[in-house]
Specification:
Helices cover 13% and strands 47% of the residues. The chain is mainly beta. The chain has a 6-stranded mixed beta sheet with strand order 1-14-16-15-11-10, with no helix packed on it. The chain has a 6-stranded antiparallel beta sheet with strand order 6-7-8-9-12-13. Strand 35 and strand 36 form a beta hairpin. 43% of the residues are buried.
Amino acid sequence: MFEERYKAINDSIHSDSKNLDAIKKLYESGEIMKNTSKTHSAGKSTMFKRYAAAAAGFVLICGAVMSGIYFSGRGITAPISNETVTAAGSYDEVYKTINQFMVERDRENTREMIASVFNGAADMVTGKAVPDMATAEAASDSGAGGTSDFSQTNTQVSGVDEADVVKTDGRYIYTLRDKENGAGSYISIVEANNGQMSKIVDLMIENSNIDKIKEGANIPIEFYVSGDRLAVLCSVRNYSDVVDLSRNFPTVSVLVYDISDRSNPKLMNTLGQTGSYESSRLIGDYIYLITEQYIYDKPKDDKLYTYVPTLYAGSEDSCVEPADIFIGFNPENAYTIVASINIKDAKEHSSVKALLSNTSNVYCSTDTLLISSEMYSREETEGVVDGKNAVVIESKSETKLVSFSLKDGAIEQTASGTVPGRAINQFAFDRYGDTFRIVTNDNSSRETIFTDGIDVYEYEGDTGANNGIYVLDKSLKIIGTLNNLAKGEHVQSVRFDGNTAYFVTFRQVDPLFTVDLTDPNNPKLMSELKIPGFSQYLHKYDDGLLFGLGYDADVDTGRTTGMKISMFDTSNPYDVTEKHTLKIDADWSEASYNHKAILVSKEKNLIAFPADGGYKVYSYDRESGFELVKQVAFDSEMRGNMRGMFIGDYFYINGYSKLASYKLPNFEETARLNF
């Protein structure tokens, strides 16, 4: 095992002389020695001799540079750190910040390379494997003359639309589809009239053919429909043959079409920005597009586009101004870029802000955007454990937050803050009045390294895993806390309803916590319901009723035994009960991780979602519980982009190659349209 690792490292070193130069520079600058412990220097010297005996081949390679040096591989390079988020004063400041990170990254990579060889030598001597260290519902006006009685994309916040692969405006159904053999993608516009369907047009997306990949192919992701506007969000990959590859960053483009004549859509403009697609929202006439751009190559100070995000409008491009770039808590080689586009005119970007930090989750209310970034802190202490000298490394997770105000397309950075732990998804965040509420899982780990003789590693995960809810003021400062809940378990789902928070954790049983947030400074636990399994998605069904979609599980082992749906009685928040539950004949559903795939309507008495290879529709009665009213089993050609929607008294199920309609409430099939 060690010989193989030695050979690989040897090859990598000889393949690039810069590695030896890097090692030499680390040694000459004293960087390597910074990572050794002063109190155990003698013991570590002894350990080095043992490592060296086993790793003689490696010492021969690096001996001229590394003679007499011990490197433990345990050192932690402190990242560039800011207490707050600040606007960049100039491009030069941005360049220096990114360049410094790149230098530190290269140094850390060299350290890890050297440490891996020494650890490999220890493996050979002790015969023990070293465990890996833990790193840690309101849609826009249809404008199409259809009925107002239609379903909308299932969203988190009323008044904030989210893009999807299927939409309806009450008269037309819009679906994203692909032609065979990579021949391109298109949006089918279908007129729906009392269950009868007629295709109006197949709108081919420009440059979506994979043959265009080197020119910058548009790969549609999802889209919006707002009145007489259709906006298609596309991932753009440009694998150019040009020598300067620094300009080939991933890009997200928004193709805005005028669809006032549904039979003849016209492309108005293409707007875009560098980065990979993270998320988006539509509020009023404005799309807010969030991308994440990594800078992998060292920046060139005379070429802005090598380290500054770029905006595209038609054939024009421009770099984000330094006043619109913010340096985050721990700036790295990643940007989160937030830009707004007026879907009505689509002439240019209305506003843009770039945050020098990565993105974990995106939450958006009607006037505020919250960007979160997960980070891990590590603290190293020395002492005696079980009568032996040891170094204890404790890792903890935390979530950095940056908020932006949104008003008629204008984006302004407003506040920043931190909460312990990590959030599972966007539903773990909520804005209520002047406060934010966040549910996290504070996942800690501990690594103990016994240093008497050859290092012996012991790793313990989830040592401090607990769950909590934090209330923050508009400045993102914590004003209320309720934590240390369900130690050792992990958050599976969260839902806020006014001054009440519900969240589910899981290890072997499913505790559903109900928390009173009436006093933001003093959150109170009202109830804790423990049942087998867990819910991965929660949705308020009616007053006093909370719907859950998830998995049943063995109460002793925690092993999942198939899907289930639950209805919780929340009428008494101090005594929440599982009123009804039903096991589902399915092992998987897109709706368990993508809320846009599920439809929940109390008015129509419908709970519908894809499951395994088909589509299931349930009704619910307060007395008798759930009833399966329709189950559609589609062939393999039908299983992509499965969505259900209703328009008036008809229900429509979209699949990859078919669109079917059914008469409510009995679900007799009315028509089927093949694509």
